[in-house]
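Troubleshooting entry. Yesterday's outputs looked truncated, so today I'm pasting the complete records for two proteins to confirm everything comes through intact. If either block looks cut off, that's the bug. Protein one:
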Amino acid sequence: MSRILNASKLFMAILVSLALTGSIQAAGTSPLETRPDAMYTSGNLIEDAQTILEQNDYLAPGSFRKGELDRTTIAAITEFQRTHVLGQTGALDYDTMAFLWSHAKAPQVAVASTVVEKTNYVYLPADTPAIVYKPTSEPLFIEKKALILSGVEFDNDKATLRPESKTTLDQVTASLKNWPDVNVEIQGHTSEPGTPAHNMFLSQRRAEAVRAYFVSEGIDGGRLTANGYGETRFIANNSTAAGQQENRRVELHEIF
């Protein structure tokens, strides 16, 4: 039995070391402490932990402050620790983060709880290139192709829209208002650095941030769905800095 427990701890140590190191390096901070007595307080890691806790029904959507160890989050962490026979500290210690990452679930793609019921998804063929969307008064999908939103930028390793994104997003909003029968999937895409799991969560949050902007400007949320694809759909050479920048993008796809 002791051999099994030791093997389990070794596996968790490897998992948390790989996953968390990628997350911290993506945020541009100092090297991550991976000692068994390490404690994690990075806002990015707290947000990742909250995402996993929400996925596993320890946190209710909208009940916590993202990236903060508020009371609701601490209570959820404590319950997670109790369920998995960990020290009930309410803190993100080494063992807790390892177990959390082992419970991470990739967001389901193309399943839209927020889209109008009975909508059928029809995606463009993989070999049909997307086009770069720039502010225009024409309908969004006049060329029947997916759109890459030029000028939509986020803070580094966050889902916070930068002010310069407003020009493009406002024009998309105007188009959505002028053509109310158009339903849209908002796709978030990311690239290295960072672990695949971290970037999957980041891409989902970024897609949701764009959706939230449209809703705040008066667009019916039932016409919009947000999906994150992480590092699964590159459009440029991801081994170069320029290619990685191009791969970090938001796309719009029409849903029929």
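Protein two, checking that the full record survives here as well:
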Amino acid sequence: MPALNTKRKQPKTNRTIETTTTKKKSSPKQTLQRNIAMLSRWLHIYVSMVSFAIVFFFSVTGITLNHPDTFAGELKNSQEKGKLNLQWVSSKDTNQINKLNIVEYLRKTHTIKAAVSEFRIDEGQCSVSFKGPGYAADAFINRENGSYDIMFIRAGVVGILNDLHKGRDTGSRWSWVIDISAGLMVIVSLTGMILMLYIKRKRVSGLVLALVGLILFYLIYLIWI
């Protein structure tokens, strides 16, 4: 009889081999590039949202300014008369003309909110001009009797928006709004360019298109202007 194999087979045991993965540390240059990309993306998104109304406003008013015959409404002219305190204007010494009282009286009497653009004193007459977006009021005061005529010119909504676009007769505060708006547009443009440079597949084509746009703009200037 064949000899029986009395040795028992040992069951196989699964041995787990632990592997340690070491992450490569980013270099300072890579970290900087990543931070620039993240900051550019954040600025591009949120500055675009904040400046959406501003960009839309200047885009639409750019069209209305370029086609004044199509979009400009009719100017409304009106005239009013009145008489103010003779002592304010009758003094022969022009330095004694009470400019403050005259201006405030005209503002209160005729509900004028625009700023004073000119106060002129002549021998027999004083003239005061008020200017605002889409608005003008010119008062002519007789220095002999204190009577005056005041002429009003009022533009429509489009005229007001166009003056706001140009910053005409809007005061120093609105000029700050225009400067800030221009700065926001610059940020949106630059961050868009930076984000495009981080996309390898679109980098070359994007730069080529930007260059083509610049050349076309210059050619249009040379041909038509």
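Both blocks look complete. Sanity check on protein two: The helical segments are 28-50, 52-66, 68-71, 99-110, 157-166, 171-197, 200-224.
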